Amino acid sequence: ILNVEQSPQSLHVQEGDSTNFTCSFPSSNFYALHWYRWETAKSPEALFVMTLNGDEKKKGRISATLNTKEGYSYLYIKGSQPEDSATYLCAFSNSGYALNFGKGTSLLVTP
Amino acid sequence: GAGVSQTPSNKVTEKGKYVELRCDPISGHTALYWYRQSLGQGPEFLIYFQGTGAADDSGLPNDRFFAVRPEGSVSTLKIQRTERGDSAVYLCASSLTGGMNTEAFFGQGTRLTVV
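YS: structure for the whole thing
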């Protein structure tokens, strides 16, 4: 079992605040790092798939960075909106096909 | 377009019963995965299919769990003699080729409750 840690476990911010979460993973045998957003009663939705050390990816107000040498990734949300409320899951792969998930960060954005 | 579809969305069963959970992947996706999310945990890997064959079933917790994908599309996860500890959300995902350097598409999951 590969240990993937996410922090914080939960977060409550006001609309318009910017926020960030951390994902740490084993730094050896890295293959890929995925971020998913999972809203209640919906499917987990892929945000980013990152494979290269130093990768930075952006989708709208959400961005992510990757450091494979030290084993961490950050997810940033700029100007949080209520529709950003969801659980954000990080998943690490060292095998090329299986994902090892963290427990997620639960984000609540209130107006 | 159609995404990954899982049925049923909810299943309540009595301890000791047999259940089947179905997954319809995205058409043309050769790779299919089953994961299980227990309360308070992240999803954990169960099994990976490439085409019709189980390429890795090392995540299946014991021999009460079995999965098939006979024609390389729809997959069924089968659980015999269910136990209360099997209660979880069972997620299915598919991807075009199987490498985790590309996106995996998830279904909404089947919430299994064993009473």
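YS: worth flagging: Chain A touches chain B through 27 residues (CB under 8 Å).
IM: good catch. Also Chain A has a mean pLDDT of 95.
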